[in-house]
Amino acid sequence: MADEAVERSESPQARLARKITLLLDLYESRGTGPLSYREVSEAMSQQGTPLSRSRWAYMRSGDSSLAMDQDLLQNLAAFFGVDRRYLLDDSTEIPELVEAQLNLLRSMREARVKNFAARQLQDLSPETLARLREVIDEHVRSEDEGS
After folding, report:
1. Would you tell me how many other CB atoms lie within 10 Å of the CB of residue 47?
2. Which residues of 82-92 are buried (b: 16+ CB within 10 A; e: fewer)?
3. pLDDT (tens digit, 9 = 90+) per residue, 54-89?
4. Nearest to 70, CA basis, from 22, 12, 23
5. CA-to-CA distance for 17 and 119, rounded, in angstroms?
6. CB–CB of 118/129 below 8 Å?
7. Which residue of 17, 56, 100, 126 has the fewest C-beta atoms within 10 A of its own C-beta?
8. Stated pTM of the model
């Protein structure tokens, strides 16, 4: 409920910035590394909607109405492979594909945390490591149930 109130009080530009950040995270989670401004800019130029560095910065920060260009948003949605309504529609709904990718991203991040912990804690006994994993798994399950 609190999240819904915060989302409703956000400006359309702030909601758009959050959506773009999510798309950038999903892009990076595919193993291609972070997406650079240059890559996005070149793709937008090819689609006929040039994107300046300052406009991209405004779009990512949610600070300007310049972020709301409909043609640019439509081309960005196509670039990221999501339904254009995701960026054009001001609602807070997340398309099924993005939601599925978010769940995958969450799992990948959790796996990275587990792998990091295993490497850092290799001097601990197997019993202690097993208990740590149980605690992490319990925490993840409780967060999933709360969602």
Report:
1. 16
2. beeebbeeeee
3. 999 999 988 877 667 889 999 999 998 888 888 887
4. 12
5. 35
6. yes
7. 126
8. 0.61
Residue 32 DSSP code: I
| Whole-number Å distance between alpha carbons of 91 and 72 | 18
Q: Which H helix or E strand runs over 95?
A: none
Scored b (16 or more CB within 10 A) or e, 106-118 reads: eeeeeeeeeeeee
Dist. CA 35–CA 44, nearest whole Å: 13
d(Cα 126, Cα 116) in Å, to the nearest integer? Answer: 16
Cβ of 73: how many Cβ atoms within 10 Å? 22
Q: Using alpha carbons, select from 80, 81, 79, 58 the residue that is nearest to residue 69.
A: 58
* Contact of 56 with 24, CB cutoff 8 Å: no
C-alpha to C-alpha distance for 117 and 131, rounded to whole angstroms: 12
- CA nearest neighbour of 21 among 69, 60, 64, 57: 60
134 pLDDT above the threshold of 70: yes
**Closest-CA residue to 40 (of 12, 95, 77):** 77
Give the integer Cα–Cα distance in Å for 33 and 40.
Answer: 14
